[in-house]
Amino acid sequence: HPTWQVLEDRYESALALFERNQAAECQEACQAILRDFGEVDGPTKWLLGRAQQRTAAADGAFDPVIAVETK
């Protein structure tokens, strides 16, 4: 499905921004995904939340590994 591939590519790009400690850019990318594809994409909403947390704590040590606490 072509839309799925576009969504996947854009999510992977947003995740790469987060992993490079570019939280503000990650937030912008996630917001654009949600605007273009709708608020139904759970992984993008989750990543947006992590990027917002990182932006709020920008002066702390950064570890790009994301710990998932639940399944």
Q: Please, could you describe this protein's structure?
A:
Helix 1 packs parallel to helix 3 and helix 2 runs antiparallel to helix 3 (42-56). Helix content is 68%, strand content 0%. It has 71 residues and is mainly alpha-helical. The model has no long low-confidence stretch (mean pLDDT 88).
Globally, the shape reads: globular
Q: Element order, helices and strands? A: HHH
- Structural class of the secondary structure composition? mainly alpha
**Regions with pLDDT < 50 over 5+ consecutive residues?**
none
Would you spell out the secondary-structure blueprint of this structure?
Blueprint: H1 2-19, H2 23-37, H3 42-56
Helix pairs in contact: 1-2, 1-3, 2-3
Brief summary:
It contains three helices and no strands. By secondary structure, the protein is mainly alpha-helical. It is globular, with a radius of gyration of 12 Å.
